[in-house]
Amino acid sequence: MSQHSKEMVETGTACVNESEVQKPWYSNLKYSIVGILFGIVFVKSEIISWFRIQEMFRLDSFHMYGVIGTAVFVGLISVQIIKRKKIKSFEGEPIIIQDKTFNKGQIYGGLMFGFGWAITGACPGPLYVQLGSGFTVISVTILSAILGTWVYGKFKDKLPH
Amino acid sequence: MGNQIIELLKQPWPWYVGGVFVGLTVPILLLLGNKSFGISSSLRHICAACMPAKIPFFNYDWKKESWNLFFVVGTIIGGFIAGHFLMSGDQIVIAENTKKQLVALGIQDFTHLMPTDIFSWSAVLTLKGFVFMVLGGFLVGFGTRWAGGCTSGHAIMGLSNLQWPSLVATCCFLIGGFIMTWFGLPFLLSL
User: Fold this and answer.
1) Where are the alpha helices (DSSP H) in B11-163?
2) For residue A134, what is the DSSP state?
3) Closest residue of A to B123, CA-based?
């Protein structure tokens, strides 16, 4: 594992996979295409709706529980198939999914994000999609989320983990 | 035929359609380039790219993670396409009970995916607007990074890979949301 990956693991970020294959920048455009489809799904399934998040937390609707539950079910089956069959990526690399290590941040940070989720009606993904769908004012929320991430990074060592 | 498909696309999609597509993002990203699904990391990469300020947490080669930023730009474009060309223009559907409670809390606009009484440029400089956009966004950014992921990285990717720390995080996301909705929002919406 390279130094870079180690640092990413230690600091507990979600994305730690690093391809050894050198690729031109435009090879990343395929992720933009997946992102576009993802954004359309987020709008059309009303995942970006502040009201849908309110329904969820008020236990008045099954919608969001259905979305998340189905997504986890589909993801779980896919990951199991990929692992059992040792399926390689299209670039021919073995697929590696880093394990998550527990720290208290998942509790404190998790609660804190939960507060923000109920207020903004959005997780980071929906924030971007809300912006794209025409709520330009959400750029303020995104900038503030970036600031929040920065302040966390600044004071990380002083926080319980 | 073509028109019928467009009309169908314009209706809100049921939960199972959304859930299947979101779930499929997990294997698609793994197969495309060995990438683990997670969106909140993009906020960290933006910090690393724009203002690392010699903070060790932001001192890494963010360019190696730039796929995440390409993905995020895609979601903004996807939001634009759906928001401008694939909306039916009908009132959004919302559970009667939630609507009743929100009306009692002072929400008036139920025509868009977000209440414009709170989320609009004219509200951003009010105390309520500050709380819902600036403070709310700050909590999302700080909290997700402290937790090491958000709904995508923990709840979907982590649970798909049977990671118990992700289950802890997901439960805390929901507990935080319940506490804020039931005990915090009645006050915050009255500001």
Assistant:
1) 15-33, 41-50, 66-85, 96-104, 127-129, 136-147, 159-160
2) T
3) A137
Residue A10 reports pLDDT greater than 60 = no
Within its chain, how far is the Cα of B32 from the centroid? 23
Cα–Cα distance for residue pair B35/A64, rounded to 1 Å? 25
Distance between CA A114 and CA A108 in Å, rounded?
Answer: 10
- CA closest to A160 among chain B residues: B146
pLDDT at B131: 97
Q: Is A81 exposed, middle or buried (0-12, 13-18, 19+ CB in 10 A)?
A: exposed
Environment class of B1 (CB within 10 Å of its CB; exposed 0-12, middle 13-18, buried 19+) = exposed
Contact yes or no for A137 and B120 at CB 8 A: yes
pLDDT computed for residue A14 by the predictor: 43
User: Which chain A residues contact residue B125 at CB under 8 A?
Assistant: none
- Is residue B41 pLDDT above 50, yes or no? yes
Averaged pLDDT, A140-153: 98
pLDDT at B45 over 50: yes
Residue B68 Cα distances to A58, A71, A137, B35, B45, angstroms: 32, 20, 23, 9, 8
**Minimal CA–CA distance to A114: which of B43, B139, B167?**
B139
Distance from C-alpha of A64 to C-alpha of A70, rounded to nearest angstrom: 10
Q: Test A39 with B74 for CB contact under 8 angstroms.
A: yes
Of A152, A19, A102, give the one whose Cα is nearest residue B154: A102
Query: Contact A36/B9, CB-based, under 8 Å?
Result: no
Half-sphere exposure of A86 (CA within 13 A, CB side): 0
pLDDT at A18: 54
Q: Given phi > 0 = left and psi -120 to 50 = alpha, else beta, which region is B115?
A: beta
Across chain A, mean pLDDT equals 90
The pLDDT value recorded for residue B10 is 86
**Whether A141 contacts B133, CB under 8 Å:** yes
Cβ contacts (< 8 Å) between B53 and chain A: which residues?
154
